[in-house]
Write a structure and sequence with these properties.
The protein is α+β, with helices and mostly antiparallel strands. It contains six helices and three strands. It is 52% helix and 15% strand. A three-stranded mixed sheet has the order 1-2-3.
């Protein structure tokens, strides 16, 4: 009879490693554009909406925080980004739209956003 010596295996370490691999943050999934499924367009739109919201916040830092909080990125479809904002903020964003579009495309490292459309709340 041959007995094998198996080193002690700590199950706690294994569980922690498995848990981290099983549950990934949503941000890491959105950032991954190499998916081969029907949801690739939706994930791209979510990524663009998130980046657009960040770039808008950087662009309009001089506006009051209350006004910035009301700006919402509504949708992205066929190269058109739609942004909801109060009337005066919408006009201000429209004047800065070319720079905003360039910043969003630069953050994406691709020329994806062709036009920005503003809607009043």
């Amino acid at each position: 009879m041959i007995l094998f010596c198996i080193p002690k295996f700590d199950i706690r370490i294994y569980l922690v490693v498995s848990f981290k691999e099983m549950f990934r943050p949503v941000g890491s999934l959105i950032g991954n554009l190499h998916l081969r499924s029907k949801s690739q367009g939706a994930i791209l739109a979510l990524q663009i909406k998130r980046i657009a919201q960040e770039q808008i916040a950087k662009t309009v830092q001089d506006l009051p925080k209350v006004a910035i909080a009301q700006i919402k990125v509504k949708s992205f479809r066929n190269g058109q980004l739609t942004i909801l904002a109060p009337t005066l903020v919408s006009l201000e964003l429209k004047m800065r739209s070319e720079g905003l579009k360039d910043q969003i495309n630069k953050a994406l490292a691709k020329n994806i956003v062709k036009t920005i459309r503003f809607r009043n709340i």
